[in-house]
Write a structure and sequence with these properties.
alpha+beta, Rossmann fold, Jelly Rolls, 2 domains, 7-stranded mixed sheet
């Protein structure tokens, strides 16, 4: 196990190694990114709890995507830990038009992949898929953050996300309890016209949920005075670890599931089950097809976990339904088993037993 606290210490040591290399680069005629981006690992140390503190376990199983990589400090650090890394930025908005990350790649003899991408375009993410992505201090630079997060949820299992949030408008209007976003004027924040949306915390959480992510850990820093979207003194930041819910990837599917459909949802059989690490209230979003009602008239859905039963949901018409399960708070793996009182039996046209469609499984934390 590589605890994130130890990783944060190693990131600090790697910073001095990089600074020495930067200082010794010959013929440099560009400006380096001036912020201490490796300090984000110290924020991760504050953010991560329980099993999520095992950083190697989070990153296992695929390459890492560093979105808005600046000079690539975090990407090169993760590579030094043995991970395959793809680094993304856009020359037009990068402080040195990505000359810094390319110069360091050459100086280090690095094998990270560097991609130039305009996240305000209808782009396609590189790579087939990623275990983890980092998108730190990028969200408020995006014209369409919904599109970026939504498409990313289909490519990435875990996401480290940080962004500025606010509780009051520049004129003092309190909106910290509402799911809203403030649109910055072109010179309102640091005289930087690439800043756009500052969300309230409820607004950020709703954006996360609507783009098929679930929150595993959440932390805010700053905000001792009412935070706003535009001043340095009232800067508040949210840091979160997210897990993709796209295509039911946040649970382990067990028995009774048919193949994945194009949009990521699945038909079930009469009995179906999954394993989850979620705790507290869990919502299972289902869709009952008109075909089911035409064939069966009505159905009843029930579920259990261990010795606990969660009650029955009577379904008499087609449409969307939510079924809620209250799981123990210990975070241990749990198997949740569902059962319909009846289902459409296999036929000549469709040889499957058909129950209902599960579109989403999400934590209500």
């Amino acid at each position: 196990m590589a605890d994130i606290g130890e990783i944060a210490k190693r990131a600090g040591q790697f910073y001095f190694h990089l600074e020495k290399i930067k200082a010794e680069l010959p013929g440099r005629d560009f400006e380096w990114y001036r912020y201490y981006s490796l300090g984000n690992f110290e924020h991760f140390d504050l953010l991560l709890t329980g099993a999520h503190r095992d950083f190697d376990a989070l990153l296992a199983g695929g390459p890492v995507l560093d979105i808005g990589c600046a000079d690539g400090d975090a990407a090169f650090f993760l590579e030094s830990l043995g991970h395959e890394v793809h680094a993304v930025d856009f020359p037009a908005t990068n402080i040195n038009r990505m000359r810094g990350v390319r110069a360091l790649k050459q100086a280090l003899g690095s094998r990270i992949e560097v991609h130039e991408m305009d996240l305000d375009s209808q782009f396609t993410w590189p790579g087939r898929g990623y275990s983890v992505a980092m998108m730190l201090g990028v969200l408020y630079h995006l014209k369409n953050p919904f599109y970026v997060l939504d498409t990313l949820s289909k490519k990435v299992r875990y996401l480290f996300l940080s962004t500025r949030i606010a509780r009051t408008s520049p004129r003092g209007l309190a909106f910290g309890a509402e799911p809203v976003a403030y649109l910055l004027d072109n010179n309102e924040l640091n005289s930087d016209g690439t800043n756009f949306w500052i969300f309230s915390e409820p607004g950020l959480r709703r954006l996360i949920r609507r783009t098929h992510w679930e929150v595993l850990d959440f932390l805010t820093l700053g905000g001792d005075s009412p935070s706003d979207p535009h001043t340095v003194a009232n800067d508040e930041r949210a840091f979160c670890l997210l897990r993709s819910r796209s295509r039911l990837s946040n649970v382990k599917l067990l028995e009774g599931w048919h193949g994945e459909e194009e949009a990521g949802w699945r038909w079930t059989e009469r009995r179906f089950s999954f394993e989850t690490l979620c705790h507290g209230r869990l919502a299972v979003e289902v869709y009952v097809s008109p075909v089911v009602i035409q064939h069966l008239g009505s159905v009843t859905l029930s579920a259990r976990c261990g010795g606990a039963e969660f009650g029955e949901l009577a379904i008499v018409s087609d449409g969307a339904y939510s079924y809620y399960c209250d799981l123990p708070e210990d975070g241990a793996p749990r198997t949740v088993a569902f059962e319909l009182n009846r289902a459409i039996q296999p036929g000549r046209v469709d040889g499957r037993e058909l129950g209902l469609v599960v579109t989403e499984i999400r934590s209500c934390r």
